[in-house]
Design goal:
This protein is α/β, with parallel strands linked by helices and 358 residues long. 36% of the residues lie in helices and 16% in strands. The chain folds into two domains: 192 residues, Glycogen Phosphorylase B (Rossmann fold), CATH 3.40.50; 160 residues, Glycogen Phosphorylase B (Rossmann fold, 3-Layer(aba) Sandwich), CATH 3.40.50.2000. The protein has a seven-stranded parallel beta sheet, with helices on both faces. The structure holds uridine-5'-diphosphate.
């Protein structure tokens, strides 16, 4: 298959601003290449693919980013800036896709979904968020009536946000296992990884660290400075150790030394890449029982699922985290979330999409 991928219109690949989509795209490219498919990627200027993905052709586009939907009101209209990066990536993608089998869109936005109804090229969409915008939700519903196979989701619970989709296609996610080293030390610190923004609920993890009289190591882009400094001020100085945004390789080296990852989202997290990355290093995860994390974590085997927003419950599981065997964590990823497993699911799905157009 010849597949053209469109990246997120928020931040270049490697910036961290695009969140989990950046890693998902690279993992998918790895899996597709190893299955023998031909891949082209359209991405913002300065983007880089993994070195091992050099067989994929990368096309760079310049322009203004979109505003992320999770930071707008649910009823906000679509805003497309002048010199729109998204429009530029689509123009390029549609042009290249004339010679390809399918255009695979990974941006959560209105324009590419709307295009589906207005061009003959098959456009498939990996929906990377729960329902964060009314206008996008309604458009998905409209396109779904004509093209029922063109949308795929990372988890069932994410797809439940789009109840008009009767049998959602669930593709999970994939991770390049060679990029993560298993570490077996159970005595390390507490970790938290993610974009520092209100939907990620960092404050609940800091609460746990503070109750235990420990530091919380925090990795990720600080997307919302106000939110970060408010949390910092509500706890004793030094409770948070800001570690910054690291490359996958640097991150996994540090994360692997930790005894547990706390994952505390307040929204319907579509999947939660950082959970699987942590498990791949052998680090168990405690998360709230909501969104994608509740489908990934095997309660009592690879970590624990706490009652949503119940910080004391979260804390009680940290106290028994040594009961989790770190090997179970790595094994779960090997069996369920490798790049090849992920790419196979995506290819099976894309075959269905292509058939609709014949
Ligand atoms: N991440 C990273 N370096 C860091 C912190 C985070 O590369 O120092 C990446 C991480 O690998 C993951 C992404 O940031 O792929 C966060 O994705 P997730 O699905 O957890 O949440 P999202 O940001 O998409 O809501």
């Amino acid at each position: 298959m010849h597949i053209v991928l469109i990246s997120t219109p928020i931040g270049f690949l490697g910036s961290g601003k695009g969140g989990g989509v950046e890693l998902t795209l690279n993992s998918l490219v790895s899996g597709l290449l190893s299955l023998g498919h031909s891949v082209e990627v359209i991405a913002p200027k300065n983007s880089k693919l993994y070195k091992s993905n050099e067989k994929a052709r990368l096309h760079l586009v310049e322009g203004e980013d979109q505003t992320s939907w999770q930071h707008q009101n649910y009823n906000s209209p679509v805003i497309i800036p002048d010199n729109s990066l998204l429009a530029g990536m689509l123009e390029k993608g549609l042009d290249i896709a004339k010679q390809a089998d399918v255009l695979l869109n990974m941006s959560y936005d209105w324009l590419p979904i709307w295009m589906t109804l207005n061009v003959d090229i098959p456009i498939a969409h990996i929906i990377s968020m729960g329902s964060e915008s009314l206008v996008i939700r309604n458009l998905i519903s409209k396109v779904y009536d004509k093209y029922p196979y063109n949308f795929a989701f990372h988890s069932q619970i994410q797809a439940d946000d789009y109840p008009f989709i009767k049998k959602p296609i669930i593709i999970g996610n994939g991770f390049k296992l060679d990029n993560y080293t298993f570490q077996d030390s159970m005595k390390g610190p507490l970790a938290w990884v993610g974009r520092v923004a209100p939907e990620k609920g960092l404050e609940d993890a800091v609460y746990v660290a503070n109750e235990l009289g420990e530091k919380l190591y925090v990795w990720g882009v600080i997307e919302d400075e106000n939110y970060a400094s408010k949390i910092e001020q509500s706890f004793p100085q030094g409770t948070i150790d800001w570690m910054g945004f690291l490359s996958t390789d640097e991150l996994q080296k540090e994360l692997g030394k930790c005894r547990v990852l706390l994952n505390t989202p307040k929204w319907n997290e579509a999947y939660g890449n950082v959970i699987v990355e942590s498990l791949a290093c052998g680090v168990p995860v405690i998360a709230y029982k909501r969104g994608g994390p509740s489908e990934i974590i095997q309660h009592g085997l690879t970590g624990y699922l706490a009652d949503p927003d119940d910080k004391k419950n979260l804390l009680s599981y940290v106290e028994i985290i040594e009961k989790i065997k770190r090997k179970n964590c790595r094994e779960w990823v090997e069996k369920n979330a490798s790049t090849n497993i992920f790419a196979n699911k995506v290819v099976n799905w894309l075959n269905k999409v292509i058939k609709e157009y014949k």
